[in-house]
Design a protein that fits this description.
Blueprint (H helix, E strand, L loop, with lengths): L1 H6 L10 H53 L5 H46 L5
Helix pairs in contact: 2-3
Length: about 130
């Protein structure tokens, strides 16, 4: 029961009898460890999603600016500004792609950590 409560993120309220306390606390701590890593994975997934959304927005914005760039109605002075903006957006995309790769590596490590914890905790007390 301690493991289940800990893995759900529930608080421990010192409700266990003295003879069960040690096993309950051990199980609870193990569950909290799993919960913590799972929360980290969720946060990393959220960051990955947000980064992918930013990349998609930048891609759309670049397409829009490129269309303006080749339009015959766009004045030369505006085309120069568009080129600078597009160049800046490509730099931002490069930075976001590096961030995304780091986030993917972080997620992979977190998944491995959770897998190792689950293997380590199989069949133990709590």
């Amino acid at each position: 029961k301690g493991y289940r409560l800990g893995s759900q993120g529930s608080g421990y309220k010192n409700v266990c009898s003295a003879e069960l306390e040690e096993d309950f606390r051990l199980g609870y701590q193990r569950g909290r460890n799993i919960y913590s890593v799972t929360q980290q994975i969720k946060q990393t997934n959220s960051s990955i999603k947000a980064t992918l959304e930013q990349l998609e927005l930048l891609d759309d914005e670049i397409l829009h600016k490129e269309a303006l760039l080749i339009s015959k109605e766009t004045p030369v002075s505006e085309r120069i500004l568009l080129l600078v903006e597009i160049k800046d957006m490509y730099a931002e995309i490069s930075s976001l792609e590096v961030d995304l790769e780091l986030l993917e590596q972080q997620k992979s490590a977190q998944l491995e950590d959770r897998s190792l914890l689950l293997q380590q905790y199989q069949g133990g007390p709590g």
